[in-house]
Amino acid sequence: MITADAAIVDHARGATAVLSIDGAIVLVGDPADVHADPRAARAKRIDWSRRAMVPGTVNTHNHSFQSLLRGIGDDLPFLEWRDKALYRYSPRLSAEDMGTAALFAFGEMLLHGVTTVCDFYYLNAQGNDNASATIEAAKRLGIRIVLARCFYDWDGAPAAYRETIPQAIANFEALSARYQDRTRFLTNVQPAPHSQHGATPEMIVAGADCAKQAGVPWHIHLAEERYQVDQSLQRFNLRPLHAIAELPVDMSQMIAVHGCWFDAGERALLAERGGSLAYCPGSNMFLGDGVTDLVDLVARGVKVGLGTDGGCSNNRVSVFDEMRTAALLQKVHRTDGQAIDAETCFRLGTSTAGETLRLPVGQIAPGFRCDLVALDLDDPSLWPTQALEKNVVYALSPRAVTDVVVDGQEVVANRRLSHVPLAEIQARVGQLTRDWRRD
Fold it and tell me: pLDDT digit string (tens) for 365-377?
C-alpha cells in the first residue's frame, strides 16, 4: 500500500492511498479507508509523505540506442543528421552495446518518471539478438517496455537495418513468442513497418498482418518531414496517410508517428479509421520537422500519446518535459494561449498514451497496473501546490521526481535506481563511446 499527501487521480486531490495486488491496482481512496480494507493487512507499506502521487508517464515513441549519439548530430539538417550520426555509428553496435544503450536510455527515463517506454527498434542485423538485449536491459531496470520491432527493407539503408519480408515475419513471431506478456504486460512486442521510405508497401502490409494475428497495434513513421509528402505524391500520387489507406491494412490498429505534415483530409481520415498518433513535439522542434496539428487531432477524437523520440533528436527523455513542450508549441503555432490546456497535455503523457499503446497503464484506478511516480512537494517548482496539475505540466523540475514504482515494485527510491548502479551505466557508456566524434 502506497500513501501520499497529494495525488493526481482524475483530478488533483489530497491525501491518497493505493492498494495493489500482484502489480494491479485494486483500491484507490482516502488512506484510512484503504488501510481498513482486509486486503491491506498483507500489503507492503510505502510512505510518500510530503510527496504527490501521479501516474507513471508513458513514452509512446523512442529509439533507445540513439541516446549513445547525443550531441553528435546536433544542429544539422534532417538528412545530414541521419547520415552523419545514425548511419555512421549505429551499424557497428553489437548486442552487448545495445544492452548498454538500453540501460542508459531507460535508466534516465525512470529517473524522469517514465514507467512505460515504446522502443521503435530497427537494428536487425543480429536477428533478434539486439532486440532481446534491449528487452533484458528493461527487465533488469524494471521499466515496462513495448519493443516495436521494425520491418525495414529499403535498400538505401545500412545493411544492419534491412531484412526480407519472410525474415521480418519470422523474427517478429519468434520475439513475440518469447516475450509477449499478456498477464502483467511488462514486456510487449509489436510490429513496426519503418515508414513509406523505409518499407515497401508489401513490407508494410506484412507488418500490419502480423499485428492483426498477434492482436496488437502496429507502428509507422509518417509525414515527419515535408519531403516525405513529396515522395509519397511522386511514388503513389497520394499523400502519406491516403497511400496507407489504399493498402489492405487495419488502420484502427495503426499508431502513426509524427504526422507533422498531415493535412486536414489526412487528419479526418485518421479519426475516421480509428488510428492513433505518437506525438513527439520536442524531437519535431529539434530537427525542424514541422508542427503537428495536435489541437485538431484531439478535437476529432484521435487518441494521441506523447513520445520523446531518440536521445539524439530531442535530446531529453522526459515525458513531463514533452507535456510542457506540446502545450507551448501548440499555443505559439496558433497564436492562442487557450489552444490547449495543461490537463489535456497531462493526459497525453499518461492515460491516453496508455490507450494509444493498448496497455492498462497511465491511470491511478482499479484494474490498471500499479505504475506510480512520487513528486517532492517541497520542491519549489511545484509551489504553490493549489495548482498542482498545471505546475506538473508547466513548471516541474526533474529534481522533483523522487520515487518510481512499476507494477507495484520500487524501481527508483530517493532519486536512485533500485536495481542497476548509475555508476555502472556511466562506465559502460563512457567505454563504448570513448572514440566517437562529431566531424
Answer: 999 999 999 999 9
Q: What is the pLDDT of residues 397-430, one digit of tens each?
A: 999 999 999 999 999 999 999 999 999 999 999 9
Question: What does each C-alpha distance from 285 to 255, 288, 326, 349 come to in angstroms?
Answer: 20, 5, 10, 18
pTM: 0.97
Q: How far apart are CA 131 and CA 362, in angstroms?
A: 25
Nearest to 364 by CA among 6, 36, 54: 54
Check if the beta carbon of residue 70 is closer than 8 Å to that of residue 312. Answer: yes
Q: How far apart are CA 310 and CA 305, in angstroms?
A: 16
| C-alpha closest to that of 65 among 45, 46, 91 | 91
- Cα torsion angle, 101, 102, 105, 111, sign: negative
User: With b meaning 16 or more CB within 10 Å and e meaning fewer, what string describes 53-63?
Assistant: bbbbbbbbbbb
Reported as type and span, the H/E element at residue 294 is helix 294-299
C-alpha dist (Å) from residue 239 to 126, 192, 195, 247, 279:
34, 20, 13, 13, 19
Return the closest-CA partner of residue 47 out of 393, 356, 410, 417.
410
Contacts of 110 (CB under 8 A, 6+ apart): 141, 142, 143, 404, 406, 411, 412, 417
Domains of the chain (ranges; CATH) run 2-55+364-421 (2.30.40.10), 57-356 (3.20.20.140)
Could you check whether the bond before residue 315 is cis, i.e. omega within 30 degrees of 0? yes
Asked whether the CA dihedral 247, 299, 346, 73 is positive or negative, the reply is: positive
Composition of the chain by helix, strand, coil, percent to 5: 45, 20, 35
Eight-state DSSP code of residue 153: -
Could you tell me if residue 68 is left (phi over 0), alpha (psi between -120 and 50 degrees) or otherwise beta?
alpha
